[in-house]
Specification:
By secondary structure, the chain is α/β, with parallel strands linked by helices. The chain folds into two domains: 228 residues, TIM Barrel (Alpha-Beta Barrel); 61 residues, no CATH class. The longest helix is centred in the C-terminal third of the chain and has 20 residues. The protein is globular, with a radius of gyration of 20 Å.
């Protein structure tokens, strides 16, 4: 999920274009992108899309950002969009463990009502100082939680923190990544509002990747290629990871816990990272025939 494109649910004319895009994931938005008077219409348009049997043929990760749990829209959103084939509910502004558990309970009920047999996962937006402080607790509140997503605009603007301040961005990213690591879930990067600033988007995405984030949110199709490129493992990274995985197999047979690969000392944490990278490369179709054979 290198790239995740936001799609306003109130604009069904964009649905087909989004599905045909190069984004790994689509996040249909019922929250900020939809005015209050248009939410019922948007909700029904999205329900219709999610009930389309051909949707799975596109191979996208499908996400819906619903309205926050303390709004009058949340219950109707969940009942409408929990459909077979949906992968994630993106929950905005959770601040307590009870928020997360209540959302998970509503999702479970909607699954029963709508005949959904594969549980839909939760991606939590971390958008307030409190949520960032207790992010690991929020992530551990329910088994449905699979990831934490940073919301820098909502986090920074009310505090008067400049959205483009590098030190603030780095600190927020690092804090979220450690919280996600503690809970055993993935971390996902924030949206970048300046569509015309491709260089700024890339710089922020590169920082997120350096901090171990899974990918970056996109608010415009022009940002998709940038995110896909930044979060694509390089050929050199893939080659090194394959060597590490191969060396780990040989070391296990010899009972070695630490060894050298290409001049670098390798022990279990490096092996774990290499295995994740190889898995991602395989999923993206980036392994060569020789590499696949070596790993077989």
């Amino acid at each position: 999920m290198r790239s995740k494109l936001f799609v306003p649910a109130s604009r069904p004319e964009l649905f087909a274009k989004a599905l045909a895009s190069a984004a790994d994931a689509l996040s249909f938005d019922l929250e900020d992108a939809v005015a209050a008077e248009r939410k019922p219409q948007a909700r029904e348009a999205l329900r219709g899309l999610l009930q389309t049997s051909a949707l799975s043929a596109h191979g996208k990760v499908l996400i819906v950002r619903v309205n926050a749990i303390d709004t009058p829209y949340f219950g109707a959103d969940i009942e409408a969009v929990i459909q077979p084939g949906l992968h994630f509910i993106n929950l905005p502004k959770p601040e307590t463990v009870d928020d997360v558990r209540a959302a998970a309970a509503a999702m479970a009920q909607a699954e029963r009502n709508n005949g959904v047999t594969t549980p839909v996962k939760l991606l939590l937006n971390i958008e307030t100082p409190k949520a960032l402080r207790v992010a690991a607790e929020l992530a551990g509140a329910d088994p449905r939680v699979a990831g934490l997503q940073l919301g820098l605009g909502d986090l920074f603007e009310p505090l008067g923190i400049a959205r483009r301040e590098p030190l603030a961005i780095a600190q927020a990213m690092f804090s979220l990544r450690l919280a996600a690591g503690e809970a055993g879930v993935f971390a996902y990067d924030s949206a970048f509002a300046d569509i015309s600033d491709a260089a700024g988007f890339r710089t922020e995405a590169e920082l997120a990747r350096a901090f171990g984030f899974l990918g970056k949110s996109c608010i415009h199709p022009s940002q998709i290629a940038l995110a896909n490129d930044v979060f694509r493992p390089s050929d050199e990274e893939i080659e090194h990871a394959v060597w590490v995985v191969q060396a780990a197999r040989e070391a296990d047979l010899k009972g070695l816990a630490a060894y050298v690969v290409n001049g670098k000392m390798i022990d279990p944490p490096f092996v774990e990272r290499a295995r994740v990278l190889v898995s991602n490369a395989a999923r993206l179709g980036l392994l060569s025939d020789d590499q696949r054979a070596a790993l077989a």
